[in-house]
Amino acid sequence: MARKSTMVLAVSLGALAFGAARANELDARVVVKSACLSPSETREEIKNRRLLEPFAVLKAAATQFKAEALSAKLCRSGEELVYEIALLHRDGRLLHVVTSATTGKLLAERNAREPVPKN
């Protein structure tokens, strides 16, 4: 009888630990997703803070990297607002570029091997 109770307790604790780990993982995803602004929030921030228009930044990045412009998202990076831009090279390579939303200055770039995320 005691052995059965111990087994039930062990299974319950394992399920509880798994549930807590899964909740932390989901919380981490929510934090990552909330870094970028929605289209309505983007319009509001552009107007209030006099940020560069996303189309202009996207077009400039495409010209600079000689690639096809795919998307631009306004995101928070610490205290700064940045555009995360996705570009596609003719050879199929995907390039992610981060630029300042106030100046358009290139802050970071990286090549990616994963497919373009579908929104």
Describe the structure in your own words.
This protein has 119 residues and is of the alpha+beta class. The chain has two domains: 1-34; 39-112, Nuclear Transport Factor 2, Chain: A (Roll). Helices cover 46% and strands 28% of the residues. It has three helices and four strands, in the order αααββββ. Strands 1-2-3-4 form a four-stranded antiparallel sheet. The longest helix has 32 residues, at 2-33. It is elongated and about 40 Å long. The chain starts with a helix and ends in a 7-residue tail after the last strand. The model is unreliable at 7-34 (pLDDT under 50).
Shape by Cα distribution: elongated
Structural class: alpha+beta
| Termini gap | 54 Å
- Helix fraction? 40-55%
Question: For the record, what CATH class of the largest domain applies?
Answer: Alpha Beta
Question: What is the percentage of strand-forming residues?
Answer: 25-35%
DSSP summary: helix tally = 3
Spatial arrangement of strands, main beta sheet: 1-2-3-4
Order of helices and strands: HHHEEEE
Rounded mean pLDDT is: 77
Q: What fold name stands as the CATH topology of the largest domain?
A: Nuclear Transport Factor 2, Chain: A
Counting structural domains, the number is 2
CATH architectural designation of the largest domain: Roll
Radius of gyration: 22 Å
By DSSP, the count of extended strands is 4
Largest sheet report: 4 strands, antiparallel
Low-confidence stretches: 7-34
